[in-house]
Amino acid sequence: MDILTQQLINGLVLGSIYALVALGYTMVYGVLELINFAHGEVAMFGAMISLAVIGALMHHGTGLNGGTIVLLGLLAAIVVCMAMGFVIERVAYRPLRRAPRLAALITAIGMSILLQNLAMLIWGKQYITFPPLLPLVRYGIGGAVITNMQIFIMILSCLLMAGLLVLVKRTRLGRAMRATAQAQDIAGLMGINVNTIISITFVIGAALAAVAGVMVSAYYGLAHYYMGFMLGLKAFTAAVLGGIGNIAGAMLGGLLLGVIESLGAGYIGTLTGGFLGSNYQDVFAFFVLILVLIVRPSGLLGERVVERA
Predict the structure, then answer these.
(1) Smaller CB count within 10 Å for the chain: N or C?
(2) 143 phi-psi bin (left φ>0, alpha ψ -120 to 50, beta other)
């Protein structure tokens, strides 16, 4: 039971991060029916930008406390990633909006590779460590251990996801996003600036990805130019698991995938008699993706059409 509780805690923390990134995939798909495969690299840039700002502030000895330095790094990452999301939509995807789906898909993959290599040129191939600026406090829960970092990640993720739901369901911007997702031409005739709404969708998704990237680097203490690739694939799996285009489904899929992966890492050695170790935990994410596509291609909550955003 101690192992089960610990793995459930770890899975919920990991799933909260997956859910934030998955929201970017599902929002873009809801509006454009396009999979933005460069979204994981946006999260990676968020981690790298935050570490660059944190390193600069520490080097110049500003006298700020650790929490303030991390917050400034997070804010810088959000601003830069939002600008990236806007530029990516404007340059890479808008010209191909009426083009065949295959052209947009190839462009998305190409943008992902481009951002990876750009990050490698800027920061190099080495791993970058996250400085220990925040005090680590551990709490015992029924034989398991949860840290203040894990609690903060889950609370912040829940607040961001709840805020996004309120934005989409209760605001004029959210209604415009839902209308654009349902029918772009009709939304334009009703006075909605479709291009602006699509750009805002990319920008919001990029901001969530930036937060997730900083969470990953702070949680594991490392960042790397290639970290966005696997994070993006798992978040995409989470979006498909919950129902691509469905915001609530992306949240549910992210949490479920994190728990499944964590439980798999904890018990794979026992289940295989020691043949496989916890380093094979990534297998579970893609096994779940294949299983969902075979059994329920629309995802657990189904693909939303009218209300998707």
Answers:
(1) N
(2) left
Decide: helix, strand or coil at residue 145.
strand
> Are the C-beta atoms of 164 and 207 separated by less than 8 Å?
no
Q: How far from 17 is each of 23, 93, 155, CA to CA, in Å?
A: 10, 26, 11
- Inform me whether the pLDDT recorded for 308 exceeds 70: no
- Write the DSSP assignment of 236-292 as a string of letters: HHHHHHH-TT-HHHHHHHHHHHHHHHHHHHHHHHHHTTTSS-GGGTHHHHHHHHHHH
Centroid of chain to Cα 69: 23
DSSP secondary structure, 188-246, as one string: HHTT--HHHHHHHHHHHHHHHHHHHHHHHHHHHSEE-TTHHHHHHHHHHHHHHHH-TT-
From CA 165, how far away is CA 182, in angstroms rounded? 17
Task: Look at the chain and count its residues.
Answer: 309
pLDDT tens digit string along 218-259?
999 999 999 999 999 899 989 988 888 888 889 999 999 999
Sign of the C-alpha dihedral, residues 213, 146, 234, 254? Answer: negative
Whole-number Å distance between alpha carbons of 197 and 201: 6
The tens digit of pLDDT for each residue in 139-173 reads: 988 788 999 999 999 999 999 999 999 999 999 99
Model-level pTM? 0.90
Handedness of CA 281, 283, 286, 290 (dihedral sign): negative
The most distant pair of C-alpha atoms in the chain lies apart, rounded to whole Å, by 63
User: Measured between alpha carbons, how far is 232 from 46 in angstroms, rounded to an integer?
Assistant: 13
